[in-house]
Amino acid sequence: MKAILAIHGGAGKWAVDEKTYRDVKKVLEEALVEGFRVYRTGSSLDMITIAIEVLENSGIFNAGIGSTVDVSGSISMDAGLMYRNRAGAVAYAKYPKNPVKLARIVLEKTDHIIIAGDAADNLARKMGLEPHPGPLPRTLELYRNFMEKLRRGEKIESPFKKSLEMWLNIGDTVGAVAIDKDSVLAAGASTGGVFFKMPGRVGDSPIPGAGFYANECGAAVATGIGEYILLTHATLKIVEELCNNTLPGKAIEKILNVITSRFGSNTAGFIALDKLGRVAGLYNTRAMPWGYISEDGAVKILGI
Ligand code: GLY
Q1: 68 lines ligand 1 (CB under 6 A)
Q2: Is any ligand 1 atom within 6 A of the Cβ of residue 190?
Q3: For ligand 1, is residue 205 a contact (CB within 6 Å)?
Q4: Domain ranges of the chain
Q5: Residue 144: CB atoms within 10 Å
Q6: Mutate-to-test residue for ligand 1 from 8, 70, 77, 78, highest number of ligand atoms within 8 A of CB
Q7: Catalytic residues
């Protein structure tokens, strides 16, 4: 089997200027190249973990360093990985700079699937993971501006529902799927969640079958409003379609149509990869930067 790695930087508006466009493209390329460097010796789990770590560290996307804030101005992050019938995830983690590394620890070193809240942070400390440095200035500025509007009594129509649209000038969740030389598939997601969420809120990204899913047929990851992705078991549905030999693009289209008809547009995006190495990315937002790399070395960036 030819190894392939595909990643995304989040569904959203991405109405970006030339510089942001270049930065986004550069980070996606770097994440693909770094993740794929190990394809000869490493697993699909290695590829996706490395790629997601690069995206988390970039500060460009809503994950890791670039994570958004909740109504109290604090960061809390979710991440999850699936590989060889195992999943590992962390929910509502505040301590680690790289929640994807903590998710991998849960997958490889525990008997559990999801570790949440303070216990996740304690585990991260115990395992010697680097601490998160706190929200970026641009995130705090967005938060302060929003709070200012609220204080002035400006009517803000359902802030939570609008949060994706507001935040996603920058972008949502990051994710990756891969197949390795042994034909084993993996999927992973990492996020700061949706802007202005309630403290304690957990989205789709640490939930297998919602934010991510992988089995012997294929792998899929989600981005967008977690509540809608949770309600539709979106990535499980996509991978089930892949087991019926549906093409990845068609499999995504099916669930995206359900999400759009139930919850509206500007709500979600997905990438999916099947066991034959066919890959697709589709979204109902204006954009979703995504790309892939395969053994011929070519890096493709799309969606922005
Ligand atoms: N898709 C990220 C979230 O809703 O938390």
Answers
A1: no
A2: no
A3: yes
A4: 3-67+74-302
A5: 11
A6: 78
A7: 173
Protein fold of 3-67+74-302: Glutamine Phosphoribosylpyrophosphate, subunit 1, domain 1 (3.60.20)
Task: Provide DSSP, 91-110.
Answer: EEE-SBS-HHHHHHHHHHH-
Q: Tokens 């949060």 sit at which residue?
A: 163
Ligand 1 atom showing the smallest separation from residue 203 Cα: 5
CB neighbours of residue 128 within 10 Å: 6
What is the Cα–Cα distance from 130 to 151, expressed in whole angstroms? 36
Distance 295 CA to ligand 1 centre (A): 31
Angle, alpha carbons 295-298-304 (nearest 5°): 130
Question: DSSP state, 225?
Answer: -
Counting atoms of ligand 1 from 1, which one is nearest the CA of 191?
2
Whether ligand 1 lies within 6 angstroms of the CB of 225 is answered as: yes
pLDDT in tens, the chain (304 residues): 799 999 999 998 776 788 888 999 999 999 999 999 999 999 999 999 999 999 999 999 999 999 999 989 999 999 999 999 999 999 999 999 999 999 999 999 999 999 999 999 999 999 999 999 999 998 899 888 888 877 887 766 554 555 555 455 556 799 999 999 999 999 999 999 988 899 999 999 999 999 999 999 999 999 999 999 999 999 999 999 999 999 999 999 999 999 999 999 989 999 999 999 999 999 999 899 999 999 987 899 999 8
Distance 194 CA to ligand 1 centre (A): 6
- Give the relative orientation of helices 44-58 and 18-36 as an angle to the nearest 10 degrees: 150
Global pTM reads: 0.95
Measured between alpha carbons, how far is 182 from 275 in angstroms, rounded to an integer?
11
- What tokens appear for 138 in the block? 């641009």
